[in-house]
Amino acid sequence: MPVRDEAVPEQRQGRLLRPLVKWLAVAAIWAVIALGGLVAWYGATLPDVDLAAAPTRQPSIRVLAADGRELATVGEYYGQAVAVADLPPALPKAVIATEDRRFYDHFGFDLIGIGRALVANLRAGTVVQGGSTITQQAAKNLFLTPERSLKRKFQEVLLALWLEQKFSKDQILAIYLNRAYFGAGAYGVDAAARKFFDRPATKVTTYQAALLAGLLKAPSRDNPISNPEGAQARTREVIARMIEVGYLTPADAKAALAQGEAASSIRRQPQIGRYFVDWVIAQIGQYAIAPDRDLLVRTTLDPSLQNLAEERVDKVLASAPAVESGVAQAAVVVLAPDGAVRAMVGGQDYWKSPFNRAASAYRQPGSAFKPIVYLAGLEAGLKPDSRFEDAPVRVAGWQPRNFTGRYRGNVTLTQAMAESINTVAVRVGEYAGADRIVDVARRLGVTADLRVTPSLSLGTSEISLVELTGAYASLANGGFGVWPYGIESIHDASGRALYVRSGSGLGRVLAPADAAAVTAMLVQAVKSGTGRAANFGRPIAGKTGTSQNFRDAWFVGFSADLVAGVWVGNDDDTPMKSVTGGGLPAQLWRGIMAAAHAKLPDRPLPSLTQPPAAAPPPVVDEPREARAGKAHEPSLWDRLMRVFGG
């Protein structure tokens, strides 16, 4: 029996393995070449690292109230660059716990972290963890676009490796924190801390640190301004992760949560005056042109008075009389007698409708326009006790009627103003002439298009609330013209003054005697006439206004300290149910003015008690558009484009 050669199978196996090894080696070489080519190609298409690393950003505008309180930041908001060593230890720990637990162990990308995220996401059935490291996210923020593609991911890894070679771990973490978006327009951890907590990032508490770390995942959704409940829930998740990795003990975590939530650590500054902010921003380009610089704009707004006006508008519009009468909107303007805007409400809810009914809506003022007509009559030679016949009148085929449908016979101008008699206003307008009426209106700051028709005297030409209130300010201050204004100063980030208001108004525009005479008529209107509902026991003067078919209702009036105008109506011009200026508008006006005067001394109306002051020189720093006599406000889009360019 032949002996079997055991070496034969081994030789056969060797002959089979040698080609396989050869081909595997060749494949490996080609794979390395291909990978090298891929790296070279993607590397060649990387952005200029030095150029991309240079800080670039758009300028922002911070708008402050008169007391220094921030009303809004428009554009991107950046804080100071911070180093990790300067931050409270809880802040970098919170970020690492929630974003990249192996940050100090990997070399730019983390295969273990990717695997852990994959398992967690498969178990959850959704994406609950990401695989990108902090270094990768820093690379993305520094150099890359938000594009989602294999090429971009490959470039992200290459840039992460470059960052790891060039910077220390703490420097990379600082780059990430200083560049990341935290929501509400805040870029960088210091900007976010100042925005949400009114303190620098170097001073945040453990709870605040966890809240900031939690924003990195979904800054727009979970930021504490737009979603405080979501921000708190996310903060609790971050603190739980800090416990998991050993950065916090359960006792410390419990104390941080209790202290943070009890102290309302989130800076919940009320979003007041948004209509006013838009109005101010639209004017910045008329005073200062600095498209490449951050701007700090200090305004005239009184936050307490603004809050009061907004609350009163909400209350009145929600009341049964307003609802039953079909009143959907209201607007309020409160000025100082020199034209400084102390409060502006452009509608019921800015977030539902940012259209500013106080400044951009042009509506028929009705009888609220009559003081301008009577001023023209006085300048034409009439006196407060001049008499006219309250009887049917016809002008060029047009026959106006009194609101009541009744006629009183022979009455004085004072009586006619107090009772808002239409026939007498038309007769006074005819006596004075339309050109004189328009001239008086222009001197009082009215730039709206005034149609020269017989009905001009009854307020049929549309006008904005802020302009009409400004016209009444000239009566309140004894005859000096004013432009309603909201900007006191504009500075750049270095503190350099770009604009500082140097005065107010256009000099004397009314004779003191005429201003006093019309003021006295308006006093009677609130004492015994159509404006009685506005009376709150202080020396005041004012006038009601109601347009045809109850589409608009107004009350505009003043005390020695404040001038206020109120309009109510509907955006679609739908008639209200018998709402007159002496009803809801006068009541809303009284509610605001009575509360605003609660801590002010009781003062007589200056034009009735004081000798005329020397006329101040006309101000030369009024907005260019106002000096040119603009007819209408530009759209919100046009305003933003004018400020930011485009």
Describe the 3D structure.
It is a single chain. By secondary structure, the protein is α+β, with helices and mostly antiparallel strands. The protein folds into two domains: 81-262, Biosynthetic peptidoglycan transglycosylase-like (Penicillin binding protein transpeptidase fold), CATH 1.10.3810; 303-644, DD-peptidase/beta-lactamase superfamily (Beta-lactamase, 3-Layer(aba) Sandwich). It is 45% helix and 12% strand. It contains 25 helices and 17 strands. It has a five-stranded mixed sheet, with helices on one face. Strands 8-7-17-16-15 form a five-stranded antiparallel sheet, sandwiched between helices. The chain has a three-stranded mixed sheet with strand order 3-5-4. Strand 1 (61-64) and strand 2 (70-74) form a beta hairpin. Helix 3 (90-99) packs parallel to helix 9 (206-215). Mean pLDDT is 84; it is low at 34-55 and 612-646.
